[in-house]
Design brief:
Blueprint: E1 15-20, H1 33-39, H2 56-75, E2 79-81, H3 101-104, E3 105-108, E4 111-114, H4 126-138, E5 142-144, E6 180-183, E7 186-189, H5 197-206, E8 213-216, E9 231-235, E10 238-241, H6 248-252, E11 261-264, E12 288-291, E13 294-298, H7 302-310, E14 314-318, H8 321-324, E15 334-339
Parallel strand pairs: 1-2, 4-5, 7-8, 10-11, 13-14
Antiparallel strand pairs: 1-15, 3-4, 6-7, 9-10, 12-13
The structure holds gamma-amino-butanoic acid (ABU).
Length: about 350
């Protein structure tokens, strides 16, 4: 039987092929002020202007750190592919980045699903991924490209049904793929400042025929924006969670997590530099699990390293703080294309 090139349905089986993002020409995403105020740290709100690149030194070092991360993965025997470099600063409609590929793309079984982003600054991001989509399509994968962005760019921000205090309404499907975590036949997701109910329905439609069910959990965070600094499965039966973003009681409601052990993540060490322009320090949790015994973590996250070792997981420390400045860590900057599910239950 020919091996499927695209086949990844959980976050922990042995990783065989992965996309690692590229940071070149990344810009502060220019979004309406209300969106910026609901999603990113207050001290950097004014940086979100049209065509405003992240500082040159930060981008240069983020590129180096991403290249090094890609080499670490290659040296572990994992096939690494990269998006095309796009100059997001020169686009007529200002763009953001191709480093945070997990926001853009999810993989379920042999399907590659592109997110119907809520942010207008991501409207041209597919330019960076189209060659990869074609590559995987040619090898038998099903690719669900995002629906065309609506002509009314404000459709998500005006009057309309909203979940809690989140900034987007439900007037068209919207999600970022990073609002979902895969556990084989269950995907755990959240409604957030970038994912709405119609977006969840759109994902469910793309999953038809796979037997995969989407289950939503409720975040404690009014600024909720991506679930991959909230829960991180380490292997079957074990996950770390962020006690400031979710309760154990909420996790216990999920049938797929019955019998799992939930470990609170260590509080991150405060840091002034490099800046967290786009996220909180909880990126400590945004790790990449290589297999049930190894995970890539930020080189300086000693408490997390100790915690993983206590649970039989060897941390592989990789420097990544400059990449954090652009909005994510190892999970955000990757899309696992193939994991070896042959040994899982
Ligand atoms: N993109 C992940 C953001 C999570 C956080 O800021 O805590």
């Amino acid at each position: 039987m020919t091996e499927q090139v695209v086949n990844a349905s959980n976050e922990w089986d042995p990783l065989q092929e992965v996309i690692v993002g590229v940071a070149d020409h990344s810009c502060f995403p220019f979004e309406p002020r209300i969106v910026v105020e609901n999603t990113v740290p207050a001290r950097y709100w004014d940086e979100h202007r049209p065509h405003n690149p992240f500082p040159e030194e930060i981008v240069a070092k983020a590129c180096e750190q991403l290249d090094n991360f890609a080499k670490v993965l290659t040296d572990l025997g994992i096939t690494v592919r990269r998006p095309k470099v796009v100059d997001f600063s020169s686009l007529e409609t200002p763009g953001y980045t191709a480093s945070m590929v997990r926001d853009a793309i999810t993989v379920a079984q042999d399907r590659i699903i592109e997110a119907p982003y809520s942010w207008r600054s991501r409207n041209h991001e597919s330019l960076a991924y189209e060659d990869l989509f074609k590559h995987y399509e040619a090898q038998g994968a099903k690719v669900y490209r995002r629906p065309p962005p609506p002509a009314d760019v404000d459709a998500l921000l005006g009057p309309g049904e909203r979940h809690r205090e989140y900034v987007i309404n439900d007037n068209r499907p919207a999600f970022d793929a990073a609002d979902f975590i895969r556990l084989d036949k269950t995907i755990i997701g959240q409604l957030s400042n970038t994912t709405n109910r119609s977006g969840v329905k759109h994902l469910e439609k793309c999953l038809e025929g796979t037997g995969i069910e989407v289950v939503l959990v409720e975040s404690l965070d009014s600024h909720a924006f991506h679930i991959d600094a909230t829960i991180t499965p380490l292997r079957e039966g074990l996950l770390i969670y962020n006690p400031t973003y979710i309760t154990v009681e909420e996790l216990q409601k999920v049938e797929r997590l019955k019998g799992w052990k939930f470990i609170p993540a260590p509080f991150p060490k405060p840091r002034e530099y490099p800046p967290f322009f786009m996220s909180s320090a909880w990126l400590i949790m945004n790790i990449l699990v290589i297999d049930p015994k190894r995970a890539i973590i930020e080189a300086e996250d000693d408490h997390l390293a100790d915690l993983l070792l206590e649970h039989g997981i060897t941390p592989i420390r990789v420097p990544f703080q400059y990449v954090h400045s652009l909005g994510g860590s190892f999970h955000c900057t990757t899309v696992d294309i193939r994991r070896d599910h042959s040994t899982s239950a």
